[in-house]
Amino acid sequence: MAKTEPLPAAAGDTRLTGIPASPGAAVGPVARMAPPPSLPDQRPTVVDAGEEAARARQALEQVADLLDGQAADLQGDAAAVLSAQALMARDPELARRAAERTEAGDPAAWAVHAACGAYQELLQAAGGYLAERAADLADIRDRATAVLLDLPMPGLPDPGVPHVLVADDLAPADTVQLDVERVLAIVTRYGGPTSHTVILARSLGIPAVVGCTGAAGLRDATPVAVDGDAGTVEVEPDEGLAERMRERAERRRALLAGSTGPGRTADDVPVALLLNVGEGDPGKAGAHDSEGVGLLRTEFLFLERSDPPTVEEQTASYTALFQAFAGRTVTVRTLDAGSDKPLAFAQTGHEDNPALGVRGFRTSRVHPDLITDQLTAIAAACRETSAKVRVMAPMVSTPDEAAEFVSLAREAGLDQVGVMIEVPGAALLADRLLPRVDFVSIGTNDLAQYTMATDRTLGALPDLLDPWQPALLQLVGTVGGAGERSGRPVGVCGEAAADPLLALVLVGLGATSLSMSAPALPAVRHALALHTHSDCRRLADLAVAASSAEQAREAVRSAAHPEAVDR
Ligand SMILES: C=C(OP(=O)(O)O)C(=O)O
Ligand SMILES: [Mg+2]
Question: PEP-utilising enzyme mobile domain location, by residue (predicted)?
Answer without folding.
Answer: 163-231
